[in-house]
From TrEMBL:
<dbReference type="InterPro" id="IPR014729">
    <property type="entry name" value="Rossmann-like_a/b/a_fold"/>
</dbReference>
<feature type="domain" description="UspA">
    <location>
        <begin position="1"/>
        <end position="145"/>
    </location>
</feature>
<dbReference type="InterPro" id="IPR006015">
    <property type="entry name" value="Universal_stress_UspA"/>
</dbReference>
<dbReference type="InterPro" id="IPR006016">
    <property type="entry name" value="UspA"/>
</dbReference>
<protein>
    <submittedName>
        <fullName>Universal stress protein</fullName>
    </submittedName>
</protein>
<comment type="similarity">
    <text>Belongs to the universal stress protein A family.</text>
</comment>
<dbReference type="Pfam" id="PF00582">
    <property type="entry name" value="Usp"/>
</dbReference>
């Protein structure tokens, strides 16, 4: 069966609930877990290099803090369940590409993730990263609603 599961998290309540299910599943089948948080890179242009450097440094500190906050609840669940895990943070313009790339690079054989269940205009405007992973990944994808 599955030996290495990638669980991407955005830190949302839906993601934390799905993480609890994923951790139980991983424990039941004896799989290890890679926890992923993807953040958008900062795209900034200026004639003044010092402004850009300062902005990137502030953004990096803020991003690192947010990543740690998003990963922490899932790490705690995995730690409490005694599941081997590692955590990864990556920058990507599109989270779904970070999910697929990380799953492939880490040798995962399953992607397990939450679905926010957005419909209508919200779904169109925000897009569904889960749907994009389902569409573009060659790996199996387990979706927790």
């Amino acid at each position: 069966m599955f030996k290495h599961i990638l669980f991407p998290t955005d830190g949302s309540p839906a993601s934390v609930v799905a993480a609890a299910h994923c951790v139980r599943f991983a424990a039941d089948i004896g799989a290890r877990l890679t926890i992923l948080h993807s953040s958008a890179p900062l795209h900034l242009f200026s004639y003044e290099p010092i402004v850009v450097d300062e902005a990137y440094e502030e953004y990096r500190r803020s991003r690192d803090r947010l990543c740690a906050e998003c990963l922490a609840p899932v790490e705690e669940l995995a730690r409490n369940a005694g599941i081997p895990f590692d955590s990864v943070t990556v920058e990507a313009d599109e989270p779904y590409t970070a999910i697929i790339t990380t799953a492939n690079n880490k040798g995962c054989d399953l992607v397990a993730m939450a679905s926010h269940g957005r419909k209508g205009i919200k779904g169109v405007l925000l897009g569904s990263q889960t749907q994009k992973v389902l569409t573009h990944s060659a790996l199996p994808v387990l979706v927790f609603r």
